[in-house]
Design goal:
about 325 residues, alpha/beta, six-stranded parallel β-sheet, globular, Quinone oxidoreductase-like, ADH-like_N, NAD(P)-bd_dom_sf
Amino acid sequence: MMRAVQALKYGGPEVLQINNIAIPKPKKGEVLIKVHFAGINPIDALITSGFMGTSGPLPLIPGMDTAGVVEEVGDGVKGFKKGDRVYTVATDNGAYAQYTVTTPKHIAHLQPSLTFAQGAAIGVPYYTAWKSLYFRAQAKSKETILVHGASGAVGIAAVQIAKANGHLVIGTAGTKEGLDLVKKVGADFVFNHRQEGYMDEIQKATKGAGVNVILEMLANVNLDKDLDLLAQRGRVVVVGCRDGIRIEPVKTMFKETSILGVALLTASDEEWQEIKNGVENLQKKGKVQPIVSREYKLSEVAQAFTEILKNSGTLGKFVLDTSK
């Protein structure tokens, strides 16, 4: 038996409970992982609430990101063996549990230099950032990247990836702590998006040319402003949005700019493998350095959901210690 977080119905943090359930068995082509830490993403809370649609069986074990050790491999599995340190980007039965099952497609090796808590902060943030930059925005060498809301998990991942790949990187945050962190992880320029006139400062940093790509973490607040910051044929990728917003479509016309959405799990097998290879290469070079904001016990999962949905000044990634 194992301990797992379950939602017996869709709803807010109050529907989450800790239950003892059977450890899953890996089938052919599957891997069983003993989970040390699970990553907590805003989308986990949204899926649990039913906001993202209510398809899928209940009870639901939330989550996709884990880090731990391979416990058992099913027939036909290659590239992984019992005892390997790994992280996941998706699972078959959920992440907030002491064991999980998934396929080799969604597993990668975790470098010895990174902790399991950091490993649980790689999957969704880094893969989403990579897909946003290079499959949705199709960012080109030397282009300027603005990460709007760069102090959260995806933002930090985007700054590190873009900087490692040779881009000029601008990041925004809403607190001094956030600004300091974004600068620490590699941004060339940082600006407080709560400060009046920050857009003018960004334009000065680009010498009036604007930015080529914006990764937007809170489109319902910033999207219309983003359109003013774009260079000719610039692209905004909407990574996060909590509500509606009014924009002026004419702003997209004369500069021929684009607004693009991103959803990680719609990636094709070829795209997925390229993302995986890219993140793995940067991990080996020491360029993947996840920031863990806070570690929660299993019993604190409802509190974690409440806090992550506030979306106020998050610094890095929340993770869940499945041993506590």
